[in-house]
Design a protein that fits this description.
- The structure is a single chain.
- The chain is an alpha+beta fold and about 90 residues long.
- It has a domain of about 60 residues.
- The protein is built from 2 helices and 5 strands; from the N terminus they run ββαββαβ.
- The protein has a 5-stranded mixed beta sheet.
- It is globular and about 25 Å long.
- The chain starts with about 25 loop residues before the first strand and ends with a strand.
Length: about 90
């Protein structure tokens, strides 16, 4: 259970902190130098990846894409109207 210090009045004006909603993204990626791991996060992204990325690129971590092909993958994702973002952002 989370407890706030007794001197904090969370009902006071301005006490409520709001954070922006995370950007809707369909894919995330992590650059590992020679390879990039691409993760399909939404049903639309999973369908796109299943249709367009080779089955041999699948791993337990997502899709393994050689760095030299990554720009083409991003272009295809963008053309499909899907969103890709670096992990941790």
């Amino acid at each position: 259970m989370f407890h706030t210090p007794a001197h904090k009045n969370l009902t006071a004006p301005g006490a409520c902190v709001t954070y922006p909603a995370p950007a809707a993204r369909d894919f995330s990626f992590a650059d590992h130098g020679n390879i990039v791991i691409v993760n399909a996060l939404t049903p639309a992204a999973k369908a796109w990846a299943t249709e367009r990325l080779p089955e041999t690129a699948r791993s337990g971590f997502g899709y393994v894409v050689e760095h030299r092909y990554f720009a083409d993958v991003v272009d295809g994702i963008d053309e499909a109207g899907l969103v890709i973002e670096r992990e941790g952002r």
